[in-house]
Write a structure and sequence with these properties.
The protein is mostly beta strands. It is built from one helix and 14 strands, in the order E-E-E-E-E-E-E-E-E-E-H-E-E-E-E. The protein has one domain.
């Protein structure tokens, strides 16, 4: 069960928030307390096509930015799954925006923008979500 509020509209949803990234998502409240959402056994990811090697820089390979040929780890569009929210990486969420995947409006990601909690430049937690 989770609560959604947009403007004056508040709704209790009989569903779950499911983390499809490969790492914990740590949400930090204003009072400093945290809510950790651990990952599921299977994470959502994109399937890259064969990468093209373009050359080398100081001996390190340089590849052309990969094209993706599909996705794995996303839930099947069932009535039960439609009640859940799914945390995905920015790369998956952004790529899914222009697809006909039925649950794309149920995909959210950790807000790693300016409000994220950082220590020495590393993100330790986030203060909210972004919707894709």
């Amino acid at each position: 069960m989770y609560t959604i509020q947009f403007g004056d509209t508040v709704a209790e949803i009989d569903g779950d928030i499911i983390n499809l990234t490969p790492h914990d998502v740590v949400l930090v409240r204003e009072d400093g307390t945290t809510w950790v959402i651990s990952p599921e056994k299977v994470s959502a990811r994109m399937i890259p096509a064969e990468q093209e090697n373009m050359g080398y820089i100081n001996g390190f390979p340089v590849s052309k930015s990969p094209e993706y040929i599909g996705f794995v780890g996303l839930p099947e569009p069932t009535e039960e799954n439609a009640r859940n929210l799914y945390i995905v990486s920015v790369i998956v969420g952004t790529a899914m925006q222009n697809t006909d995947y039925p649950l794309r409006n149920r995909l959210i990601g950790p807000d790693t923008g300016a409000s994220a909690v950082r220590i020495n430049g590393n993100i330790m937690g986030v203060r909210g979500f972004v919707m894709y």
